[in-house]
Design a protein that fits this description.
Two copies of one chain form a homodimer.
Chain A (H helix, E strand, L loop, with lengths): L1 E7 L4 E7 L5 E5 L6 H10 L3 E6 L11 H8 L2 E5 L9 E3 L5 E3 L2 E7 L8 E5 L2 E5 L17 H10 L9 E4 L9 E2 H7 L9 H9 L9 H8 L27
Parallel strand pairs in A: 3-4, 4-5, 5-6, 10-11
Antiparallel strand pairs in A: 1-2, 2-3, 7-8, 8-9, 9-10, 11-12
Helix pairs in contact in A: 3-5
Chain lengths: 249, 249
């Protein structure tokens, strides 16, 4: 498998490029609209063709590049069935494998950060989205977030994978890049083996995080697979960058 | 490739079990004498046969299981040529690939922690020994250790590998298990991109670490590929456990 972990610094998002050596097809997990050209250049450099984009959930901190990629290079859009996006070409369902040439990803419904959140497990790698971060997890106070559901998703589903499974999260804010299931079970301070459901519920209820800067623009944009609003306040215009007319709503 | 990361808690050592699915042969990197039975049980459970043990260097904090494994199951011993161990069946040299069925490891001479230290690079994984640890590195004040040499080994050799190469260290004292070359370049506080050779030299000269508890027993034992001293002070007997007569000197 061809593999690249790509970092988008505005929202500290990791986009994953997976390529099949047999068919030359590529897939992007959680592509970000402002990094679209960089991602396409990397795909081209590797001699691959982008076949699919695949999001883990409706993001609140950045706009997906899914629709813009489709418009530019004809890639198709896969997204969780739960969110019923009319713009998606394929609705991802729990346990129904997603295949691309010799690559297979197993979608795992992992609600809690958002109700429709999916993680994707392929070979020895887990793309954990915002459900499981290195030494942490995504917040649970928006988009039908639910601490009990997230605890069940991570401890009851992700932590049953083999310990050596590599954990590739959707974000890290300290430039860490990879972990493993064994590491997270051992030392995740929120969800590790020493943490009860009650402790987790209390932790998440007392994070006192600020209201997300971009959520009111990102969520409606991502419900359309990535359509940048025409009028954006100056302080968040950087999250859209230079978009084509076709992806401006 | 079959892969297991195994932890030995006395010396916080990671042993790596690599297996070839085609031939059913296994290799252990840095096996520890007190974990020998656990490692053999795992190899058996996987339906594999141990063909080789392979050390990254002459360890000062634990005794290698290489000789005891050879005596018990007939596995052969590979060790860096630099150390000229008469007990080794194969002398590892820089750039001369080590193969086991479909697996290939490229040995990289990485002096600095010890003069004869090797890292092993295979597929997308680097077994970095004590040369490069997660957010750190091995000490350089014994066994012909040399801070300048270690800086050159890590920044001049290991940091030239692809950024997505997984870094599997020989130790971690905080239960972290895996990193990547990109992560270490970005944030290793001793050797990362922000650290000059002069800063590294000063850091290593001022660590003020205690004299290693077990070094006076471990180094002579490991120069014989793992022969436990017959008489050990009570406080370090745990590092040998129950050994057979054949590996007691």
């Amino acid at each position: 498998m061809i593999f690249r972990q790509l970092f988008e610094p505005l929202s500290s998002t990791y986009t994953y490029l997976l390529g099949c050596e047999v068919t030359g097809q590529a897939l992007l997990i959680d592509p970000v609209i402002v990094s679209l050209e960089r991602d396409l250049a990397e795909i081209s450099r590797l001699g691959l063709t982008l076949a699919w984009s695949l999001d883990t959930h409706i993001h609140a901190d950045h706009i997906t590049a899914a629709l813009e990629l489709k418009n530019k290079v004809g890639s198709r859009i896969a997204a969780p069935a739960f969110d019923r996006l009319p713009c998606a070409d394929l609705a991802i369902e729990d346990g129904v494998a997603f295949t691309l040439g010799s690559l297979t990803l197993q979608p795992i419904h992992t609600p809690g950060h958002t109700a429709g959140h999916f993680a994707y497990h392929g070979a020895d790698r887990l793309f954990s989205g915002d459900a499981l971060l290195i030494d942490g997890c995504g917040r649970t106070d928006f988009q039908n977030g639910d601490a009990d559901a997230l605890y069940a998703s991570v401890t009851g589903k992700l932590f049953t994978l083999p310990g050596d499974t590599l954990v590739y999260p959707a974000h890290d804010y300290q430039e860490r890049r990879v972990s493993s299931i064994a590491q997270e079970i051992q030392r995740n301070p929120r969800l590790g083996q020493q943490c009860s459901r009650e402790q987790f519920r209390a932790t998440m209820a007392n994070l006192n995080l600020p209201y997300p800067t971009f959520i009111d623009y990102a969520v409606p944009a991502n419900l359309q697979c990535g359509v940048c609003p025409v009028h954006l306040p100056e302080n968040v215009q950087k999250y859209c960058g230079q978009m084509t007319e076709s992806t401006q709503g």
